[in-house]
Amino acid sequence: FRREYEIIRNLSGEGVVEAYALEKDRGYLVMVLEDFGGMSLDRLLPSMTMDLRTFLNLAIKVAGALEMIHGQGVVHKDINPSHIVWNPETSLVKIIDFGIAEILPPGKQAVRSPEVMEGTLAYMSPEQTGRMNRTVDHRTDLYSLGVTLYEMVTNRLPFVAGDALEMVHAHVARTPVPPHKINPEVPEMISNIILKLMAKTVEERYQSAAGLKADLQQCLAQYQ
Predict the structure, then answer these.
(1) 16: which strand partners?
(2) For position 135, what pLDDT does the model report?
(3) Hey, which residues are catalytic here?
(4) What is the pLDDT of residue 199?
(5) How many C-beta neighbours within 10 Å does residue 91 have?
(6) Who's near 211: CB < 8 A, 6+ residues apart?
């Protein structure tokens, strides 16, 4: 908990919720966090219809927040709708919950090969499952963001499984149905971007949040 507080305190940029204090209350540690009037996407999305312009603006802001986080040597490792907070009134988007985040020392490109699964299973990258014999780096967040964007445009997860083992197999080996085949209102280019984020091997994914943001901005410019 202290470590999470220190990570948030040391991140500078508006894409991360601010941590004001770490206090003790009745024997428990309490983290005092910024309240900017937002709500997590997992609570917002079920009750709202999102048009393409709103989706692109939101996705660009999340990609920008990840670009900032990765640029300061932090891998979040648990990107999913419950950890992305959005205020539709002000358009502010912030990422929360750095409980399992890792700091990459200067010059180091990857965290390590996971010995145990960490994160939220439905959004977990193949390398996070421990079945790929691959180290985890910033591109694991891009996979999890891909699953999140998939859910945003289709209102469903790319993989549905009966148990944890089946879900792990899906992330490692199954190919998701392209989003535009589920929701015809999703342009094929957006669908391709999401599938690229969800590539099984890190080399086939976007290599940076900045690259993703640039492509999404190009899509928004063409749409407008």
Answers:
(1) 95
(2) 84
(3) 78
(4) 97
(5) 11
(6) none
- pLDDT at 49 (0 to 100): 80
Residues with Cβ within 8 Å of residue 154, at least 6 apart in sequence:
179, 182, 183, 186
Tokens of 35: 């309240």
CA gap 110, 104 in Å, rounded: 7
Q: Strand 84-87 relative to strand 74-75: parallel, antiparallel, unpaired? A: unpaired
DSSP per position, the chain: -HHHHHHHHH--STTB--EEEEEEETTEEEEEE---S-EEHHHHGGG----HHHHHHHHHHHHHHHHHHHHTTEE-S--SGGGEEEETTTTEEEE---TT-EEPPTT-------SS--S-GGG--GGGGTSS-----THHHHHHHHHHHHHHHHSS-S---SSHHHHHHHHHHPPPPPHHHH-TTS-HHHHHHHHHHT-SSGGGS-S-HHHHHHHHHHHHHHH-
What was the pLDDT predicted at 112?
Answer: 64
> How far is 26 from 3, CA to CA, in rounded Å?
20
pLDDT in tens, 155-196: 999 999 889 999 999 999 999 999 999 999 999 999 999 999
Distance (Å, rounded) from C-alpha 178 to C-alpha 191?
A: 6
Q: Which residue numbers in the chain have pLDDT < 50?
A: none
By C-alpha distance, which of 75, 73, 101, 86 is closest to 14? Answer: 86
What pTM did the predictor assign? 0.94
Residues making up the chain, counted from first to last: 224
